[in-house]
Each structure stands twice: as C-alpha cells, then as structure tokens.
Amino acid sequence: MRCREVEALWDELRSEGMPSLRDAVKLHLLSCPPCQELYEEYEGVAFCLSSLATPEPSCDLSKKVVEHIADMRIKSRIDPVQLATVISPIGKLYVGFKENRITFIAICRGEGVAKICEQVEKRLRRQVVNTDPPQWLLDTITSFFHTWKFDDSHVDLSDLTPFEQEALKAAAKIPPGEVRSYTWVAEAIGRPKAARAVGQAMARNPIPLLFPCHRVVDSSGKLHDYGYGIEMKARILQMEGYRATKP
Q1: Are 235 and 90 in contact, with CB atoms under 8 Å apart?
Q2: Which one of 3, 35, 59, 213 is the catalytic residue?
C-alpha cells in the first residue's frame, strides 16, 4: 500500500526549486537534532506502511498495521546483522551481512566496533552480532578492489526505502573511474527534480564502495562531499582510474 500522490509530494519537498517555506523547514531539520530523530522515526514508520499488502475493503487496517510493525520488530530480533572486520586496500572495513548478502559497509576511522554497531542498528533498525568474516565475504571484497564491480546477488537493500534503493542502483551503473552528477542520478530514476533527495540518499548510503556514492559529484564536476572526507573520495576514484579534467 503506497499513496503515489503523497510520495510525489514528499519527493517534491526534498527536490530543487522548493518554495521559501519549504527551504526554511529543510534548513531547520538540518540544524535541529530532535527534529532529525523524529524524521528518522517516521521514515521508519512510512517504510513499514509501504511494505503492507493492499488490504481488502472490509479489513481492520489499524490491526494490520500493528501486526506488521510487531512482525518487523520480531524479525529484527531473529534476523540480526552480522558484523565482521575485513582488511582492504583503503584500510579496515566493517562489513555487515545477513546470510550471504552484504547490508552495510563502513570505512574504519578509529571509532571502534561499538560505535559502528550503533550506526548499523540506527540505520537498518536491526540488532548486530559480531562475527568473523566468512570466505565468500572476503572473496567479494577482494574481487571488488580488483575489478571495481560486484555481484548484486551478494548485497541486500531491502531495509531501505524504495527511493533510496532506486538511487543507489542507478549510482551502481556509473562505470568505474567515471563520475556523474546528482541530477544525472535523479533523471536516471525518472525523478528529474529530486537531485537534493538523491544527495540525501547518497549521504545515507549504508553500502558505500559497492554502491558507489563516491562516483556522484555536483553539477560543476567538483567532488562535493563524502562521508569519509574528500581526500578518501579522491583516493578511491584515483584507484579506479579517474582523472579529473581541468577547466
């Protein structure tokens, strides 16, 4: 069940050309931690609602909503994310996975495993269990740094919103060593006015490297921003063979 009109309005809210009132709301959200917490909470509720099957006209919808949220909570307890440490050419990686599918990657910045576990639980709303890396995971990471490609059967985006999934899958189509703009990604998913929303999806990307938000830049071609710093973004692109063109 998903209201397409509400979805369109929500994307418009986060897209370019917003009226001044909406700009003010966005600026407030960026600077207000309590509002950010509420935003994330209701984003989670919206995701739960979007996952519900279309109800029959006579059904008790409120009961179905409660049951679905309860099922999601149970699932988070019985299907946790396993977190392993993997050494890569760019340093230590924390890689989260469920069965044989990667759900989370973080480049170590010295914050420690406990902090990473908090990030996983907050972003994916699942419990985390520390473990040793299985061989398939080591092979997947090793292969990526040799080919800059990955087998999409070894990744899992199911905990993300449909918009985030579309944006990240579009970014994965950017060839290694090349860059594209946020607008390019927005147009690739049929949301030409949602460049800002794409930027937010890239900033919240739980599987960087494999879903290469580092290949997404601003409209001028500048590297813009990266959660692990511009230097790391430039380093990864250089390893892929990217050479910035001088104006």
Answers
A1: yes
A2: 213
Q: CATH says 162-240 is which class?
A: mainly alpha
What's the rounded Cα separation, in Å, for the pair 220 and 247?
A: 10
Compute the distance between CA of residue 106 and CA of residue 120 in angstroms, rounded to an integer: 9
B/e letters for 33-52, b = 16+ CB within 10 Å, e = fewer, are: eeeeeeeeeeeeeebbbeee
Q: Is the pTM of this model over 0.70?
A: no
Token duo for residue 89: 């050419």
DSSP state of 106: E
Specify the pLDDT at position 170: 97
Look-up of token digits 């760019």? 90
CA distances 8 to 2, 193, 231, Å, are 11, 10, 36
Helix (H) or strand (E) holding 87: strand 81-88
DSSP string for residues in 186-243: HHHTT-TT-HHHHHHHHHT-SSTTTS-GGGEE-TTS-----TT-HHHHHHHHHHHT--
Give the domain ranges of the chain.
Answer: 4-76, 79-151, 162-240
**Can you tell me the distance from the alpha carbon of 223 to that of 244, in angstroms, rounded to the nearest whole number?**
10
Tens digit of pLDDT for each residue in 83-125? Answer: 999 999 999 999 999 989 999 999 999 999 999 999 999 899 8
Quote the tokens at residue 126.
């699942």
117 is catalytic: no
79-151 folds as: Double Stranded RNA Binding Domain (3.30.160)
